[in-house]
Amino acid sequence: xxxxxxxxxxxxxxxxxxxxxxxxxxxxxxxxxxxxxxxxxxxxxxxxxxxxxxxxxxxxxxxxxxxxxxxxxxxxxxxxxxxxxxxxxxxxxxxxxxxxxxxxxxxxxxxxxxxxxxxxxxxxxxxxxxxxxxxxxxxxxxxxxxxxxxxxxxxxxxxxxxxxxxxxxxxxxxxxxxxxxxxxxxxxxxxxxxxxxxxxxxxxxxxxxxxxxxxxxxxxxxxxxxxxxxxxxxxxxxxxxxxxxxxxxxxxxxxxxxxxxxxxxxxxxxxxxxxxxxxxxxxxxxxxxxxxxxxxxxxxxxxxxxxxxxxxxxxxxxxxxxxxxxxxxxxxxxxxxxxxxxxxxxxxxxxxxxxxxxxxxxxxxxxxxxxxxxxxxxxxxxxxxxxxxxxxxxxxxxxxxxxxxxxxxxxxxxxxxxxxxxxxxxxxxxxxxxxxxxxxxxxxxxxxxxxxxxxxxxxxxxxxxxxxxxxxxxxxxxxxxxxxxxxxxxxxxxxxxxxxxxxxxxxxxxxxxxxxxxxxxxxxxxxxxxxxxxxxxxxxxxxxxxxxxxxxxxxxxxxxxxxxxxxxxxxxxxxxxxxxxxxxxxxxxxxxxxxxxxxxxxxxxxxxxxxxxxxxxxxxxxxxxxxxxxxxxxxxxxxxxxxxxxxxxxxxxxxxxxxxxxxxxxxxxxxxxxxxxxxxxxxxxxxxxxxxxxxxxxxxxxxxxxxxxxxxxxxxxxxxxxxxxxxxxxxxxxxxxxxxxxxxxxxxxxxxxxxxxxxxxxxxxxxxxxxxxxxxxxxxxxxxxxxxxxxxxxxxxxxxxxxxxxxxxxxxxxxxxxxxxxxxxxxxxxxxx
Length: 833
Hints:
Elements: H1 13-33, H2 43-54, E1 64-65, H3 66-76, H4 82-91, E2 103-106, E3 124-127, H5 129-135, E4 145-147, E5 154-156, H6 165-169, E6 171-174, E7 179-182, H7 187-199, H8 205-211, E8 222-224, H9 227-235, E9 237-243, E10 245-250, E11 256-262, H10 269-281, E12 288-293, E13 301-305, H11 311-321, E14 325-331, E15 333-336, E16 339-342, H12 345-386, H13 388-397, H14 401-412, H15 416-423, H16 432-457, H17 459-477, E17 484-486, E18 502-508, E19 512-517, E20 531-532, E21 542-549, E22 553-558, E23 562-567, E24 581-582, E25 595-601, E26 609-614, E27 618-623, E28 635-636, E29 646-652, E30 657-662, E31 666-671, E32 687-688, E33 699-704, E34 710-715, E35 719-724, E36 738-739, E37 747-753, E38 758-763, E39 767-772, E40 786-787, E41 797-803, H18 809-824
Parallel strand pairs: 8-17
Antiparallel strand pairs: 1-3, 2-3, 4-5, 6-7, 8-9, 9-14, 10-11, 11-13, 12-13, 15-16, 18-19, 18-21, 19-24, 20-39, 22-23, 22-25, 23-28, 26-27, 26-29, 27-32, 30-31, 30-33, 31-36, 34-35, 34-37, 35-40, 38-39, 38-41
């Protein structure tokens, strides 16, 4: 029901919501969330600084409780929650948030670990000297004042801002429909850029970028790449990738430790340490033996590594899986004439210059007015002193002040202000010394007035004043850059910091893997006893071995047909006698998997393909490019029958021949082509390669036929031979094959070798012998062979591998140098690979 006095107007709820939401949006945008492009402050920050100055909290005055500041701000200027005011106050005093602090804090103001500050009744604060320079001249009519929320007093709409605070300290804010995220920059660089724009208003952004290379975060760190920097400098938007800083220290026992001393901006240090600890616990980073946070006010996170682990690999993993490397999305958005505007770096600095031009102009007008007022009074003093006796006579003849003032004004044409000033003069000012002071003050004042007038009349002089004041503040506050800028991180490769050298990958029967430099083994004459090479324990022995270069990719083919891909340098390095690391800590293997073959490739491109062979003689061909999108958890390489398993894999081209050698010394040679063995997808079974006559026979090896090489077959009894491939005729795929060799035991392995090659032989007892191929005679297919290695009683040969040359000039030079040194020492050894 309506009353008589009510005046109701029907309105659509849609109209009401639109109007209310727009009003709310504009209030958030203009009065809360976004900084002003002129002074770089949000309203709450400006009110805090002004209130602190108003109550006398200068940088050289005693601290005062933050509660008093919060109360002052709430009571006079900011009618919102006390927590929002205190949070803004605390943030301006945190050294890891502000590049140049505006609040000088005392007490618990929180920490970079995310610890909250103490309640405002416990903490104290005062203005920093830099904040006072932002507020300087605010009482000289330099800025407009507006009524506060209840119109009981006034507050500044903007502060004079003697420094480019918006870019100096940056700003972050979320408004309605827009956000700002401005990074801090180095003050010295900003002042140089500001002066450069003043000197040349047509300066390009590219020229400014040479002066301001990029952000300068309070927490330091390293920015990787200039792409994001150039983008936001030119357009106002860009993504900057920042990485923490770490160095390596040596500790006792030959170990090394990584020490993190700087972390990216806005990253919680405690969370970073926790994340690294989780990665260590989950075996994602398994090179770490200890993790400690030794930080105080300075960051020092210590990551101690196990012996012989690669520090670069660990840093790379930390960067990949933790906020040690993070992104900062830059949005240069601020209020320009009370309207939100996205600007590039030049436009933002130009807004500041225009603000300072207005501030200096208004300050000069204010000072000129005061100087002229003082000169006017001094002119009155001069008239009085020049006519002192008459002035005294007139004053003494009058009955009151008003009568004296009127007579002086009438006789000497004085203004009322001059007459009052003369009547207020004290007797000591009539002395000769004081008269000289008045004359000198008047002369100096006229020079000052002329200077002020020239500044107001000349734009060039006005801008020169701005530059002079900026240079003075630069000398006062300039500090070295904390954040370094390097080349694009995407262009960084681990290969750039890891030497390209030959190495031997060994995998034991019990699943231990290691990478050992080729130079760790001695080259010996045929039949030598060898050196301990595997460091196996109990009944473990080397089951797989492979040679590669550290820069290659290595593909691990599991016995169940699954394929894993790793960089060779990611394989943990061990000594010649070390046991190695469990394969489950290197690959994300599934239960029951074991290594069947390993292939080294430089890249997954070209027309190369892979030919795989199973224990039961099934072969399958798949293009190498099909494996380029590998995953950490492995991919399917071939489908295997339940009672079968993969025994080998080779990299082939169309038209190549391969030879399969069985445990019972049978062999078959056939050609790889589309009509014989066509390429199939990864998740397929394959076709029959050889028919096994004996139930207990199985395929021992698959080798690629090389016309310039021979097939080396080694028996478990240490007897072996080289045979030309011409002895093995090409047959149809799927046949039972021909006899490969006559041995007094079963075959231990087969290799395609050349005259200049060397081979590595491993025995069940852990002995390793490196021997030149040229010491092994080339004989017919149906012969027995020669002794390759002297075996101890009960020991057997379990595997052989060919040593390959490293395709790197530097590595070759190093190995040749090692050979020369060995020969000079009189050793019968060679480390050439």
